[in-house]
Design goal:
Elements (H helix, E strand, L loop, with lengths): L6 E3 L1 E3 L2 E3 L6 E5 L4 E6 L4 H17 L7 H17 L1 H12 L3 H7 L4 H13 L4 E2 L5 E9 L2 E5 L5 H15 L2 E5 L6 H12 L7 E3 L4 H10 L3 E7 L2 H13 L3 E5 L4 E5 L5 H13 L9 E7 L3 H17 L17 H16 L3 E4 L24 E4 L10 H4 L6 E7 L2 H8 L4 E2 L1 E5 L3 H10 L4 E4 L14 E2 L2 E2 L4 H7 L1 E9 L3 H7 L14
Parallel strand pairs: 1-5, 8-9, 8-11, 9-10, 11-12, 13-14, 13-19, 14-17, 16-17, 19-20
Antiparallel strand pairs: 2-3, 4-5, 6-7, 7-23, 12-22, 15-16, 18-21
Helix pairs in contact: 1-8, 2-5, 2-6, 2-7, 5-6, 10-11
Length: about 525
């Protein structure tokens, strides 16, 4: 494809495509290392204009004050249109992320659940009537916040965007979304679908751009009432500090280094299947990827051999992400590939053993002839303790690699397993594999994570809270809590006492003595 033939995407603002004020973003296909599209990026001026416009739309009440059943109907229509457009959206998602199409065909159709769930929630939400003392009637309402900023990463562009968009729209807010500069295209397409579904212009806007310029201008804007970000922990800390200065609400799903514990009472084959899914889906580029695998020592060799065989099978069946038979795609960029290589090489130089993988892939795919050297493919990798090195002392044990690399260590007791699992600054996801229910309960109670799976991994549902502790973030996605986080509580109190009662009890400054109320 020549430079002039590359498609150009514009920003999505106020229900139409708009040119940006910065140099265009180059969108790369990570499987072949080639630019296939360009996308306009938002300047600080563009950000201000978009936020001001979204604020006016919010204040107009065209979405924020419409009856909730009408908002719910619109969310359902968005779900219907999303279903009708799945083939082209999946194709675009595969191209910009490098994710294997078999993954996207499984993931993207589930996104309709979020719009349907929050449509159902606002149709059935009940107002609390509080037991206030006296002749008072006190009820609460949920009111939208205003203009909210949403910042999404490259690894699940549509999934993570939809998890934020659906509750924010259900609550009646206006949205300004900044997708990753690496993968902005499907977010723009979502905007077009929402307009087609009847969402009023200006309620949902997409401003592509980098974090330094576009992201910073967005989160600093004084009209932004909430910032919801998924990304790395350093960026999350910086964004949270800015949001705090403006007293904006803040939700952050940040880094992870998920532990996965396999006990001797686990079903070994089920556990091995669970490990490879937890670790290598999305080429390991997920915040909840199981990257630290702890196995009870009396089954360690057995698990190691089965796991090695399974991982090598994945590598043999890698090819073009567009191939439905390909098991795993490339990393997102050359930068990400260098980061994974650096952490693995650091561990190897320190004496860690490479069980399988451990290097960038080159040559041709035996599956379909794909030239791995043109893209950012890294072999699925297992690392373990070396003769002179404990892997728990390496950087890759501590730092988020965001790639298809796992470290495998043995343990003897539950207490030792928990000590290893909790040896991290992060606390997003964790998993336990055992057929002993009481053991699963004991360990899950003490593992330091916001999400804990038992005999499964990566399970995600609109109703199920998704968030972390420690350096993995603040707040939670999904469920009623996410909806509430996009609202503020309004308390209304009515005094229904008669005028005579009021005159006898509420004349605070009457002449003479007598009891008066307080509260």
């Amino acid at each position: 494809m020549t430079e002039n033939m590359k498609e150009t995407y514009l920003m999505w603002v106020n229900g139409t495509e708009v040119e940006g004020g910065l140099e265009q973003l180059a969108i790369e296909d990570p499987a072949i290392g080639e630019i296939f599209a360009h996308c306009h990026a938002a300047s600080a001026v563009n950000v201000d204009e978009a936020v001001q416009m979204a604020h006016k739309v919010f204040k107009s009440g065209v979405w924020s004050k419409v009856p909730r059943h009408l908002r719910a109907d619109t969310l359902d229509r968005i779900a219907e249109l999303l279903t009708k457009n799945l083939p082209r959206l999946i194709e675009l998602e595969v191209r910009q992320t490098g994710r294997a199409i078999r993954e996207m065909k499984a993931q993207v159709p589930t996104l309709t659940k979020w719009f349907k769930y929050y449509a159902a929630l606002i149709r059935t939400e009940e107002r609390s009537v509080l037991p206030t003392v006296g002749k008072l009637h006190n009820w609460t309402d949920r009111k939208p916040l205003g203009v909210v900023a949403q910042i999404t990463p490259f690894n699940h562009p549509m999934l993570i965007a939809v998890k934020k968009i659906a509750p924010a729209l259900a609550a009646g807010n206006s949205i300004v979304l900044k997708p990753s500069e690496l993968t902005p295209l499907t977010s723009i397409e979502l905007g077009k679908l929402m307009k087609q579904a009847g969402l009023p212009d200006g309620v949902f806007n997409v401003l592509p751009g980098d974090g330094v310029t576009t992201g910073k201008a967005l989160v600093e804007h004084t009209l932004i009432k909430k910032v919801d970000v998924t990304g790395g922990t350093p960026a999350g800390r910086a964004i949270g500090a800015i949001a705090g200065q403006n007293l904006a609400h803040y939700t952050a799903e940040l880094g992870g280094k998920a532990p996965l514990i396999v006990f001797e009472k686990a079903h070994v084959d089920l556990a091995v299947n669970g490990i490879v899914f937890a670790s290598f889906i999305a080429s390991g580029q997920t915040c909840v990827a199981a990257t630290r695998i702890m196995v009870q020592k009396n089954i360690l060799d057995q698990v190691m051999q089965k796991l090695k065989s399974k991982v090598q099978s994945i590598e043999r069946r890698m090819g073009s992400p567009k191939n439905v038979d390909s098991m795993m795609g490339p990393l997102i960029s050359a930068k990400q590939l260098r980061n994974v290589e650096m952490l693995v090489n650091d561990a190897v130089e320190a004496g860690v053993t490479v069980v399988t993988g451990g290097q960038r892939m080159t040559g041709k795919s035996s599956l379909d002839g794909t030239d791995f050297s043109k893209g950012y493919f890294y072999a699925p990798t297992i690392l373990s303790d070396g003769p002179s090195m404990k892997i728990t002392a390496t950087r890759i044990w501590k730092e988020e690699a965001f790639g298809p690399v796992i470290v495998l260590v043995g343990f003897d007791t539950e207490d030792e397993a928990l000590e290893l699992a909790n040896d991290s600054e992060y606390g997003l996801g964790a998993a336990i594999w055992t057929q002993d229910l009481s053991q699963a309960f004991r360990v899950s109670e003490n593992i330091e994570s916001g999400i804990c799976w038992i005999n499964t991994h990566h399970r995600n549902d609109p109703s199920s809270p998704w968030g972390g502790i420690k350096s993995s973030g603040v707040g939670s996605e999904n469920g009623v809590d996410a909806y509430n986080a996009y609202t503020t509580t309004k308390s209304t109190i009515i005094n229904y006492a008669t005028a005579e009662d009021g005159l006898s009890t509420d004349d605070w400054f009457r002449e003479g003595a007598g009891e008066v109320r307080y509260g």
